[in-house]
Design a protein that fits this description.
heterodimer; A: about 140 residues; alpha/beta; Nonspecific Lipid-transfer Protein, Chain A; two-stranded antiparallel sheet; globular; B: about 140 residues; two-stranded parallel sheet; about 25% strand
């Protein structure tokens, strides 16, 4: 059984995130450990596309659906190009590394408000999402 | 000017790719063939789906074929498909290809992590398509 559970028909951004995570879990099955632990709800919004995708991590799966799920623990908001920077940033401790140019760009966008992560203090959840998406 | 879609257009496109230092740099380690599917829009002069295949390798195009069969085209490592008029929007730079994929306007089949890793090369590929002087079949 796939660890990626697609709830309803996924389209555009949500389909891309589902395919991205599925591809990463297939090529690196050790990342499945990121789906264990407490259930966490994550929302990702691409502001320029007016698109939102919701993820629920836990019980060994990630459930992905179109639109807004209630009360996310973490909500990532940015334009679509910035969202694509996130998987390409090299990670240090599961978070974007400033030793890498893409990582620096991501951090700079956070500082300037172009990338907003609500619930950023829930570092464990942010780290889980970042590591699930990473292709760097 | 080459007519889109046509063999002549694909040939010109490949010349552009091979001459592009930006693409060569962005795709330096890329390995994998790709098919563009220009989906039929009979009322616009594209009566059936057109499969254009390119074997992309380390920033170069090793081979290309226009009008391959569906089976040949779908066998590529990556397949990007959209109706003819969406491709026209991309070539006219009215639609950003990456945003188009994220909006579901262009559909991609293949390993997403690889595409995301090479997003700059993907973008450059489509930007080059926009540089081909083009006549569109529905404007004839």
């Amino acid at each position: 059984m796939s660890n990626v559970v697609r709830q309803g028909e996924l389209f555009g951004l949500s389909a891309i995130i589902a395919d991205l995570i599925e591809g990463n879990l297939t090529s690196e099955p050790e990342r499945k450990r990121l789906l264990e632990g407490k259930t966490k709800r994550v929302r990702i919004t691409a502001t320029d596309l007016d698109a939102t995708v919701s993820l629920v991590l836990g019980d060994g799966t990630v459930q992905i659906s179109e639109g807004k799920s209630p009360d996310p623990h973490v909500w990532i908001v940015a334009d679509s190009i910035t969202l694509l920077d996130l998987p390409n940033a090299k990670l240090l401790g599961g978070l974007p590394s400033v030793a890498d140019s893409t990582g620096r760009a991501v951090v700079a966008k956070m500082v300037t408000g172009k990338l907003k992560i609500r619930g950023i203090l829930r570092v464990g959840t942010v780290r889980r999402v970042q590591m699930l998406l990473s292709v760097a | 000017m080459p007519l889109f879609p046509s063999q002549e257009w694909l040939d010109e496109y490949v010349v552009m790719i091979k001459a592009s230092p930006d693409y060569a740099a962005a795709a330096e380690t890329w390995e994998g063939d790709i098919t563009y599917v220009f989906e039929a829009e009979p009322e616009k002069g594209v009566p059936e789906d057109v499969y254009s295949w390119m074997d992309l390798w380390h920033g170069d195009v090793r081979a290309h074929k226009y009008g391959v069969t569906k089976e040949e085209g779908e066998a590529a490592k990556f397949v990007i498909r959209a109706p003819y008029s969406r491709w026209k929007e991309v070539i006219k730079k009215e639609l950003d290809p990456i945003k188009g994929m994220m909006q579901g306007k262009l559909k991609l089949k293949g390993d997403l992590p690889t595409i995301v890793r090479y997003v700059k090369a993907s973008n450059e590929l489509v930007n080059l398509a926009a540089n081909v002087p083009t006549d569109f079949v529905d404007e004839q």
